[in-house]
Write a structure and sequence with these properties.
Two copies of one chain form a homodimer. Helix content of chain A is 35%, strand content 39%. Chain A has 80 residues and is an alpha+beta fold. Chain A has a single domain (2-79), classed as Phosphoribosylformylglycinamidine synthase subunit PurS (Mth169, Chain: A, 2-Layer Sandwich), CATH 3.30.1280. Chain A has a three-stranded antiparallel β-sheet with strand order 2-1-3. The two termini of chain A are 13 Å apart. Strand 2 of chain A pairs antiparallel with strand 2 of chain B, so a sheet runs across the interface.
Amino acid sequence: MTYTIQVKVMPLKELLDPQGKAVRGGLENIGIAGVQDVRIGKNVTLYIDSASEEEARQVAEEAAKKLLANPVMEYYEITV
Amino acid sequence: MTYTIQVKVMPLKELLDPQGKAVRGGLENIGIAGVQDVRIGKNVTLYIDSASEEEARQVAEEAAKKLLANPVMEYYEITV
C-alpha cells in the first residue's frame, strides 16, 4: 500500500528566521494586521510504498534524519 | 489571544515538482527505498493576535490568498 506521509521541517525556535521576518513585514505593508510573528519552513510529502504504516513512518523518519532536515538549524515533525 | 495557525503551501498536483524529484533521487542514492514520489512545499506558521479563532483564521486566509500562495502554481491548506 502507498502511505502519504507529511514531514514538516521548521527552523529551530531559538534561531532567527529572516524569511519569516520579511513575510511579516510584507503582510503589514499590504494592510494585514495582527500578525505577531511568522516562521517559514518546508513541508515534504512522501508517498511511500510499504507493508504497514509503522514501516512507512520509519522510512520517513530515516529520510528526515539523513536528508530532509539539518538538525543544527531545523527540527522536523512527521504525520501519517 | 495569540493563535498559532499553519498554512501549508504545496505545488499543484498537475505540475511537475523538480525539487521533489531531486529529493526522491537523493533518497534513492543514500539507500532509502520505497519512496514513490516526493512533493515539496512551504509551511508557514503565523502567530496571530485576535479576539477569536474564527477571526484569526480569516486573517490567515487573507494572508495566504494575497501573499503566501501563488494560485497559478500552488494551493494552500490552513489548520488552526
